[in-house]
Amino acid sequence: MSHETTGIEYLFQDPKIHLDERVRDLVSRLTLEEKIESMLQYQPAIDRLGIAAYKHGTEAAHGIAWLGEATSFPQPVGLACTWDTELMRQIGSVIADEARVYYRRDPKLNGLTLWAPTVDMERDPRWGRNEEAYGEDPYLTGELSKELVKGIQGDHPVYLKAVATLKHFLGNNNEVDRGVGSSSIDPRNLREYYLRAFEKPFTEGGAQSMMTSYNLINGTPATLYHGVNDIVRGEWGMDGFVVSDAGDVMGIVNDHQYYDSHTPGVAESIRAGIDSITDDAELSKQAIREALEQGSLQEEDLDRALFHTFRVRFRLGEFDPAADNPYASIGEEALMTEQARELSLRAAREQIVLLKNEQELLPLNPAQCGKVAVIGSHGNEVFRDWYSGTLPYRVTPLEAIRAKLESGSAEERVVYSDAKDRVTLTAATDGAKLTVNSSGDMRLSQNGVPTVLTITDWGYGSVTLHDEHLGTYVTSDEETLRVTADEAYGWYVKEVFGLTPVEQGEHLWTTWNGKPVIAGTEGLLKVMESASPAPNASDFNHTTFRIETVSDGLAEAIAAAQA
Question: DSSP string covering 56-112, please?
């Protein structure tokens, strides 16, 4: 039967042809410029061949993140405490189902290549990414990651439900300068510790993607590390694609100063195994063009990389009739199902580690306990981490305890104290009071009624300030301060401030990035342009502030406990 009679114009469109032959045919039909454009995270549409636009990279560490409401599971560090591999596979399957829902909504922006799981060893809080990984044991990490991968990718012999991208390869769990430093790894540690966690998700889980790390490995940028080709592809047989972390190919110059220009770094990254570049698009494309012109990169190097990325897209069913792909029919009915909600609850219960219960105080028996005090700054909060999605609902510890102990009772049996101070701030120079209007604007005023703010101490000199009347946090940009943030959240948490004692009860107020807060026109609070050199207390009008405690959180907590 000819292609004309079947409606198939090109060889790569024929599902009966072997997968690898189809992929090679597609790549061979691309012009050189189309190949260069397709080397990036956002692969463009190529209309003349019927190829749609595609984006690599949807965050999914413990549920679909950043796209909208989705089922949220406990952080991976909590999931590790379940020791439950079957649970991990089921969680992976739910994540992939919901990725399919968002993919059908907008396939150009909501890709099916998911940046999860994080397989880095998590051995020290100073690493800074402890929400993402499964702990310090490479065996446990490997087993749990393997099962999550299986759940995400599905068990069909031809098609993938979604694709798991293991990150970050390799040795990124440095406590200091993990973005720019070098991880020194001897051969035994390499094999028995760092590689051990990654091996099973590839060899037994069949992971179809991997992300390299920001750090150097024994002095070599991870994007240039020989182990990507020699170990991951050569020894473990990974036949999917490798993606660089955001900004990291340009980081060879910008962060590591390994080369003087981007061209050699981009060329060597591609030859070392990077198939998809997550970076500045124009700089990356220009570097590829220059490398081709100079002969440090060949067109067949691009062909090899694109073979890997398009092969995965074929396995996701993009180029085949939807009727052939069992995952293509997943629709809105698969988003936040009751079964997914129950699975999230099961995971939350299984992650709990009860170290001692010698007097059998837990679980609380509503029939036997009298009044209960819930105490602490997190008692009535549910925080999101950077890789959380938009939560469809929240249940705080206080709400849950009240529901258990006060169900069916008119008696108020649960008292709560967050143990936080309520404070007002005044300018140290002239006593002008900090006020907040209904729009969240902050200003110093001689005649206004001072606004009471709830202060939360996060340690290491960091605090957040919350206006209970408005229900929002103080936040900052590069110019002003306003009380408009619904939560303390972001890649940079701009709701965090410093209130550093300087002299005689005065405090220097600084933003998340260390810039002093001062009074501008009409007393409006503004951010000083530069934090260096640090100003003296007398250098600027209204630079320092006095803090007056309106209510003592510790005293209230003690009273709640005594009651």
Answer: --EE-SSS--SSSB------HHHHGGG--HHHHHHHHHHHHHHHHHHHHH-TTTS-S
Contact 507, 546 (CB under 8 A): yes
| Alpha-carbon distances, residue 476 vs 139, 186, 248, 355, 425 (angstroms) | 43, 44, 28, 41, 17
Do 514 and 429 share a domain, yes or no? Answer: yes
Quick check: 43 and 309 in contact, CB under 8 A?
yes
Q: How far apart are CA 460 and CA 512, in angstroms?
A: 12
Residues 369 and 511 in one domain: no
Three-state DSSP at 159 gives coil
CATH number for the domain including 177? 3.20.20.300
For residue 342, being part of any structural domain is answered with: no
User: What are residue 19's phi and psi, to 5 degrees?
Assistant: -55, -50
Distance from C-alpha of 311 to C-alpha of 31, rounded to nearest angstrom: 18
Share of the chain above pLDDT 70, in %: 96
d(CA 523, CA 442): 8
Look at residue 117 and tell me if it is in a domain.
Answer: yes
Average pLDDT over residues 266-281: 98
> Residues 6 or more apart from 167 whose CB is under 8 A from it?
115, 116, 117, 118, 119, 120, 210, 211, 213, 245
Separation of alpha carbons 285 and 307, rounded Å: 18
Report pTM: 0.91
Domain assignment of residue 400, given as a range: 354-417
**Strand (E) or helix (H) holding 476:** strand 472-476
Instruction: Given the residues 84, 97, 245, 275, select the one marked as catalytic.
Output: 245
Same domain, 116 and 215: yes
When divided into structural domains, the chain yields a total of 3
Summarised one tens digit per residue, pLDDT across range 479-536 is 999 999 999 998 899 999 999 999 888 999 999 999 999 988 788 899 988 655 554 5
Paired tokens of 379: 């008692």
Q: Tell me whether residue 20 is one of the annotated catalytic residues.
A: no
Q: Is the backbone of residue 530 left (phi > 0), alpha (psi -120 to 50) or beta?
A: beta
Q: Would strands 163-169 and 113-115 be described as parallel, antiparallel, or unpaired?
A: parallel
The residue type of 285 is: K
| Residue 140 near residue 76 (C-beta atoms within 8 A) | no
